Amino acid sequence: MDSMEPDQTPFAAVTAQTSRFSRRVQDPSSGIQWLTHPRFQAYQAYLDKSTPYVAYRWSSTGALLVLFLLRIVLSEGWYIVCYSLGIYLLNLFLAFLQPKFDPSLSQDDGLEDGDSVRSPLPIKRDEEFRPFIRRLPEFKFWHSATRAITIAFACTWSELFNVPVFWPVLVVYWIILFTLTSKLHPVHVVQKEV
């Protein structure tokens, strides 16, 4: 039996889509020309190659953070930059620890409407297992933290950001914010029935 050949092969369909995308990228009115810039492509290639090396990525970020903190301590300035970085890293860390779908929030939504909503987490052994999905994945957490530390380090080389402040007040305020934020975002632990 002779079967009819489709008008377009899968390869031709993919080629048509990619050529349409490349025309859109090259179009000056599209606003996404930076995707084809060699520096962006080299940066993206570096990020792609570094993905499996979690320990090396975090150790380099830790070294960068130590270098930044040494700059702050030795220069005795830029406390507001350090404080802002600390608040940003705290928010990133809390987003990393939180689940993407908060079970307590989904239970509260049903209670407002009068519906009984069952928990998305398994309570009994025969229920379906739902894995823990983070609100902020590890790679995005690392990338955002490294980028923030790099920007903060660059800010310490400009006198514009060296605002005179009494640093112990910032440290105490940061500790208070950390304590309050940690209490507001509890870690959800599900106890299994025996």
Question: Concise description?
Answer:
This protein is mostly helical and 194 residues long.
Give me the secondary-structure topology.
Elements: H1 10-26, H2 38-50, H3 54-75, H4 79-97, H5 103-113, H6 138-155, H7 167-184
Helix pairs in contact: 3-6, 4-6, 4-7
Radius of gyration: 25 Å
Mean pLDDT: 75
**How much helicity do the residues have?**
55-70%
Query: Please, how many helices?
Result: 7
The percentage of residues in β strands lies in: under 5%
How far apart, in Å, are the first and last alpha carbons?
A: 62 Å
Order of helices and strands: HHHHHHH
Shape category = flat
Based on the structure, what is the oligomeric state of the protein chains?
single chain
Unreliable stretches: 108-116, 187-194
In terms of structural class, how would the helical and strand content be classed? mainly alpha
Largest sheet composition:
none
Number of strands: 0
